[in-house]
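Reviewer 2 asked us to include a model.

Predict the structure of this chain.
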Amino acid sequence: MNFSALADTAHAVTPAFAAALDSVGMQQIDVIFTLADHPDNVLSAKADISVNLPKADKKGIHMSRLYQQLFQWVQAEPVSPAGLQAFLQSLLHSQQECGSTSATLRLNCNLMLRRPALKTADLAGFKAYPLTLDACLSGDKLKVSLSLNIGYSSTCPCSATLSRQLLSEQFTKQFAAQQVIDTNQVSQWLLQHASLATPHSQRSTARLSVDIDPTHKDFGMLKLIHLAEQALATPLQTAVKRADEQEFARLNGANLMFVEDAARRLHAALKPHYPAFSIDVAHHESLHPHDAVASVSYNR
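Predicted model (C-alpha coordinates):
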Protein backbone atom coordinates (compact mmCIF):
# COMPACT_ATOMS: atom_id res chain seq x y z
CA MET A 1 0.00 0.00 0.00
CA ASN A 2 1.23 3.48 -0.85
CA PHE A 3 0.80 5.27 2.47
CA SER A 4 1.91 8.60 1.00
CA ALA A 5 -1.21 8.52 -1.16
CA LEU A 6 -3.59 8.27 1.80
CA ALA A 7 -5.62 11.36 2.53
CA ASP A 8 -4.36 13.63 5.33
CA THR A 9 -7.54 15.40 6.40
CA ALA A 10 -5.97 17.10 9.41
CA HIS A 11 -3.57 19.04 7.17
CA ALA A 12 -5.35 19.20 3.84
CA VAL A 13 -8.60 20.69 5.12
CA THR A 14 -9.21 24.17 6.50
CA PRO A 15 -11.10 24.27 9.85
CA ALA A 16 -14.70 25.46 9.72
CA PHE A 17 -14.01 27.78 12.66
CA ALA A 18 -10.61 29.45 12.78
CA ALA A 19 -9.11 29.80 16.26
CA ALA A 20 -5.76 29.22 17.87
CA LEU A 21 -5.74 26.52 20.56
CA ASP A 22 -3.81 26.58 23.82
CA SER A 23 -3.35 22.83 24.01
CA VAL A 24 -3.91 19.78 21.80
CA GLY A 25 -2.71 16.28 22.55
CA MET A 26 -3.45 12.97 24.28
CA GLN A 27 -4.13 11.82 27.83
CA GLN A 28 -3.80 8.52 29.68
CA ILE A 29 -1.23 6.98 27.33
CA ASP A 30 0.08 3.68 28.71
CA VAL A 31 3.85 3.79 28.99
CA ILE A 32 6.70 2.20 30.92
CA PHE A 33 9.88 4.07 31.78
CA THR A 34 12.73 4.36 34.27
CA LEU A 35 13.73 7.34 36.40
CA ALA A 36 17.20 8.75 36.78
CA ASP A 37 16.56 8.48 40.53
CA HIS A 38 16.02 4.70 40.24
CA PRO A 39 17.32 3.49 36.85
CA ASP A 40 16.77 -0.18 37.77
CA ASN A 41 13.12 0.33 38.74
CA VAL A 42 10.76 0.04 35.74
CA LEU A 43 7.59 2.06 36.31
CA SER A 44 4.21 1.71 34.64
CA ALA A 45 2.58 5.08 34.05
CA LYS A 46 -0.14 7.08 32.37
CA ALA A 47 1.19 9.91 30.25
CA ASP A 48 -0.47 13.15 29.12
CA ILE A 49 1.25 14.97 26.28
CA SER A 50 0.33 18.09 24.31
CA VAL A 51 1.44 21.09 22.27
CA ASN A 52 -0.28 24.36 21.47
CA LEU A 53 -1.76 25.11 18.04
CA PRO A 54 -1.22 28.81 17.39
CA LYS A 55 -2.05 28.69 13.67
CA ALA A 56 -5.78 29.26 13.47
CA ASP A 57 -5.96 27.95 9.89
CA LYS A 58 -4.50 24.53 10.78
CA LYS A 59 -7.19 21.91 11.31
CA GLY A 60 -5.08 19.66 13.53
CA ILE A 61 -1.63 18.75 14.80
CA HIS A 62 0.43 15.67 13.95
CA MET A 63 -1.02 13.64 16.81
CA SER A 64 0.77 10.38 16.01
CA ARG A 65 4.14 12.12 16.07
CA LEU A 66 3.65 13.01 19.73
CA TYR A 67 3.04 9.35 20.55
CA GLN A 68 6.05 8.18 18.56
CA GLN A 69 8.35 10.75 20.15
CA LEU A 70 7.22 9.70 23.64
CA PHE A 71 7.58 5.99 22.89
CA GLN A 72 11.09 6.42 21.52
CA TRP A 73 12.24 8.73 24.32
CA VAL A 74 11.24 6.53 27.27
CA GLN A 75 13.05 3.59 25.68
CA ALA A 76 16.21 5.55 24.97
CA GLU A 77 17.05 6.97 28.43
CA PRO A 78 15.86 7.29 32.03
CA VAL A 79 13.56 10.24 32.63
CA SER A 80 15.44 13.14 34.25
CA PRO A 81 14.93 16.89 34.64
CA ALA A 82 17.95 17.53 32.42
CA GLY A 83 16.55 15.29 29.67
CA LEU A 84 13.12 16.89 29.58
CA GLN A 85 14.14 20.02 27.67
CA ALA A 86 15.51 18.11 24.69
CA PHE A 87 12.47 15.83 24.64
CA LEU A 88 9.94 18.67 24.70
CA GLN A 89 11.91 20.51 22.05
CA SER A 90 11.67 17.41 19.87
CA LEU A 91 7.89 17.57 20.24
CA LEU A 92 7.87 21.16 19.03
CA HIS A 93 10.16 20.25 16.14
CA SER A 94 7.69 17.54 15.09
CA GLN A 95 4.95 20.17 14.88
CA GLN A 96 6.79 22.86 12.90
CA GLU A 97 3.98 23.11 10.32
CA CYS A 98 1.59 24.02 13.16
CA GLY A 99 3.81 26.73 14.59
CA SER A 100 3.73 25.13 18.07
CA THR A 101 5.71 27.08 20.70
CA SER A 102 4.83 25.22 23.91
CA ALA A 103 4.80 21.56 24.88
CA THR A 104 3.77 19.74 28.07
CA LEU A 105 4.27 16.30 29.56
CA ARG A 106 2.66 14.74 32.62
CA LEU A 107 3.55 11.30 34.00
CA ASN A 108 1.39 9.66 36.68
CA CYS A 109 2.66 6.51 38.37
CA ASN A 110 3.49 4.79 41.66
CA LEU A 111 7.04 4.80 42.94
CA MET A 112 7.52 1.47 44.74
CA LEU A 113 10.01 1.50 47.60
CA ARG A 114 11.12 -1.23 49.99
CA ARG A 115 10.40 -0.12 53.55
CA PRO A 116 11.85 -1.89 56.63
CA ALA A 117 9.86 -2.57 59.77
CA LEU A 118 10.36 -0.21 62.70
CA LYS A 119 11.93 -2.79 65.03
CA THR A 120 12.07 -6.28 63.55
CA ALA A 121 15.32 -6.95 61.74
CA ASP A 122 15.07 -8.16 58.10
CA LEU A 123 11.30 -7.58 58.02
CA ALA A 124 10.19 -5.33 55.18
CA GLY A 125 7.56 -4.72 52.52
CA PHE A 126 6.86 -2.54 49.51
CA LYS A 127 5.02 0.75 49.77
CA ALA A 128 3.64 2.79 46.86
CA TYR A 129 4.18 6.53 46.63
CA PRO A 130 1.83 7.98 44.00
CA LEU A 131 3.67 10.65 42.05
CA THR A 132 3.14 13.09 39.22
CA LEU A 133 5.87 14.62 37.08
CA ASP A 134 4.97 17.79 35.18
CA ALA A 135 7.09 19.53 32.57
CA CYS A 136 6.17 22.53 30.44
CA LEU A 137 8.40 24.09 27.80
CA SER A 138 7.26 27.52 26.58
CA GLY A 139 9.66 29.08 24.14
CA ASP A 140 13.02 28.33 25.76
CA LYS A 141 11.74 28.38 29.35
CA LEU A 142 11.29 24.99 31.03
CA LYS A 143 9.31 24.46 34.25
CA VAL A 144 9.54 21.09 36.02
CA SER A 145 7.61 20.06 39.11
CA LEU A 146 7.20 16.91 41.17
CA SER A 147 4.15 15.97 43.24
CA LEU A 148 4.20 13.09 45.73
CA ASN A 149 1.65 11.52 48.06
CA ILE A 150 2.91 10.62 51.54
CA GLY A 151 0.73 8.40 53.71
CA TYR A 152 0.96 8.69 57.48
CA SER A 153 -1.03 8.19 60.68
CA SER A 154 -2.42 11.09 62.72
CA THR A 155 -3.82 11.07 66.24
CA CYS A 156 -5.91 14.04 67.35
CA PRO A 157 -4.42 15.89 70.37
CA CYS A 158 -7.89 16.74 71.68
CA SER A 159 -9.01 13.13 71.49
CA ALA A 160 -5.86 11.96 73.26
CA THR A 161 -6.39 14.52 76.03
CA LEU A 162 -9.98 13.39 76.57
CA SER A 163 -8.89 9.77 76.70
CA ARG A 164 -6.16 10.55 79.22
CA GLN A 165 -8.62 12.55 81.29
CA LEU A 166 -10.86 9.49 81.57
CA LEU A 167 -7.87 7.40 82.59
CA SER A 168 -6.88 9.92 85.25
CA GLU A 169 -10.39 10.01 86.68
CA GLN A 170 -10.57 6.21 86.86
CA PHE A 171 -7.14 6.02 88.49
CA THR A 172 -8.11 8.58 91.13
CA LYS A 173 -11.36 6.75 91.82
CA GLN A 174 -9.54 3.43 92.21
CA PHE A 175 -6.75 4.63 94.55
CA ALA A 176 -8.28 7.67 96.29
CA ALA A 177 -8.58 5.84 99.63
CA GLN A 178 -4.94 4.73 99.68
CA GLN A 179 -2.32 7.03 101.13
CA VAL A 180 0.50 4.84 99.84
CA ILE A 181 0.26 3.07 96.50
CA ASP A 182 2.41 0.07 95.67
CA THR A 183 4.13 0.38 92.29
CA ASN A 184 3.36 -3.24 91.38
CA GLN A 185 -0.30 -2.61 92.11
CA VAL A 186 -0.25 0.48 89.90
CA SER A 187 1.55 -1.44 87.17
CA GLN A 188 -1.08 -4.17 87.22
CA TRP A 189 -3.88 -1.60 87.16
CA LEU A 190 -2.34 0.15 84.17
CA LEU A 191 -1.99 -3.14 82.30
CA GLN A 192 -5.72 -3.75 82.74
CA HIS A 193 -7.15 -0.25 82.36
CA ALA A 194 -4.68 2.07 80.59
CA SER A 195 -5.63 1.07 77.07
CA LEU A 196 -8.50 3.46 76.48
CA ALA A 197 -8.74 3.85 72.72
CA THR A 198 -7.98 7.19 71.16
CA PRO A 199 -11.21 7.58 69.19
CA HIS A 200 -9.86 10.13 66.75
CA SER A 201 -6.91 8.50 64.97
CA GLN A 202 -6.78 7.96 61.24
CA ARG A 203 -4.83 7.27 58.08
CA SER A 204 -3.81 10.58 56.53
CA THR A 205 -2.34 11.89 53.28
CA ALA A 206 0.01 14.73 52.41
CA ARG A 207 0.34 15.88 48.82
CA LEU A 208 3.66 17.66 48.29
CA SER A 209 4.43 19.61 45.14
CA VAL A 210 7.90 21.07 44.63
CA ASP A 211 9.62 22.89 41.79
CA ILE A 212 12.64 21.04 40.40
CA ASP A 213 15.73 22.66 38.90
CA PRO A 214 15.54 21.60 35.23
CA THR A 215 19.33 21.24 35.08
CA HIS A 216 19.44 18.56 37.79
CA LYS A 217 20.34 14.97 36.92
CA ASP A 218 17.47 13.52 38.98
CA PHE A 219 14.30 14.58 40.80
CA GLY A 220 15.48 14.02 44.36
CA MET A 221 12.47 11.86 45.21
CA LEU A 222 14.11 9.95 48.06
CA LYS A 223 15.18 13.23 49.67
CA LEU A 224 11.64 14.62 49.53
CA ILE A 225 10.13 11.43 50.96
CA HIS A 226 12.73 11.33 53.73
CA LEU A 227 12.15 14.97 54.70
CA ALA A 228 8.38 14.47 54.85
CA GLU A 229 8.40 11.21 56.77
CA GLN A 230 10.97 12.48 59.25
CA ALA A 231 8.87 15.59 59.86
CA LEU A 232 5.62 13.68 60.35
CA ALA A 233 7.29 10.84 62.29
CA THR A 234 4.36 8.43 61.76
CA PRO A 235 4.70 7.04 58.21
CA LEU A 236 2.45 4.14 57.26
CA GLN A 237 4.03 0.72 57.74
CA THR A 238 4.17 -2.39 55.56
CA ALA A 239 4.99 -5.71 57.27
CA VAL A 240 4.83 -5.59 61.08
CA LYS A 241 5.16 -7.83 64.10
CA ARG A 242 4.04 -6.99 67.61
CA ALA A 243 7.20 -5.05 68.43
CA ASP A 244 6.76 -2.93 65.30
CA GLU A 245 3.11 -2.26 66.04
CA GLN A 246 4.01 -1.23 69.58
CA GLU A 247 6.64 1.19 68.28
CA PHE A 248 4.11 2.59 65.81
CA ALA A 249 1.71 3.19 68.72
CA ARG A 250 4.47 4.93 70.65
CA LEU A 251 5.28 7.20 67.70
CA ASN A 252 1.61 8.14 67.30
CA GLY A 253 1.33 8.97 70.99
CA ALA A 254 4.50 11.06 70.85
CA ASN A 255 3.42 12.94 67.71
CA LEU A 256 -0.17 14.06 68.26
CA MET A 257 -1.28 16.18 65.31
CA PHE A 258 -4.15 18.34 64.21
CA VAL A 259 -4.22 18.76 60.44
CA GLU A 260 -2.77 22.25 61.00
CA ASP A 261 0.18 20.73 62.87
CA ALA A 262 0.94 18.33 60.04
CA ALA A 263 0.91 21.10 57.42
CA ARG A 264 3.22 23.26 59.55
CA ARG A 265 5.63 20.39 60.23
CA LEU A 266 5.96 19.78 56.51
CA HIS A 267 6.34 23.49 55.75
CA ALA A 268 9.22 23.75 58.22
CA ALA A 269 10.88 20.63 56.80
CA LEU A 270 10.70 21.69 53.13
CA LYS A 271 11.43 25.42 53.45
CA PRO A 272 15.24 25.15 53.77
CA HIS A 273 15.49 22.86 50.75
CA TYR A 274 13.04 24.09 48.08
CA PRO A 275 12.54 27.60 46.65
CA ALA A 276 8.87 26.92 45.91
CA PHE A 277 6.40 24.30 47.03
CA SER A 278 2.80 23.63 48.01
CA ILE A 279 1.40 21.26 50.62
CA ASP A 280 -2.09 19.80 50.84
CA VAL A 281 -2.87 17.70 53.91
CA ALA A 282 -5.97 15.56 54.49
CA HIS A 283 -6.88 13.65 57.65
CA HIS A 284 -9.45 11.05 56.66
CA GLU A 285 -11.49 11.29 59.83
CA SER A 286 -12.46 8.29 61.91
CA LEU A 287 -14.78 10.42 64.07
CA HIS A 288 -16.56 12.23 61.22
CA PRO A 289 -17.83 11.24 57.76
CA HIS A 290 -15.73 14.04 56.26
CA ASP A 291 -12.03 14.93 55.98
CA ALA A 292 -10.09 17.64 57.79
CA VAL A 293 -7.80 19.50 55.37
CA ALA A 294 -5.11 22.18 55.37
CA SER A 295 -2.96 23.78 52.68
CA VAL A 296 0.12 25.94 52.64
CA SER A 297 2.44 27.20 49.90
CA TYR A 298 5.82 28.91 49.78
CA ASN A 299 7.72 30.89 47.16
CA ARG A 300 11.11 32.23 48.17
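The radius of gyration is 27 Å. The domain at 13-155+200-299 is CATH 3.10.270.10 (Urate Oxidase). We have added this to the supplementary material.
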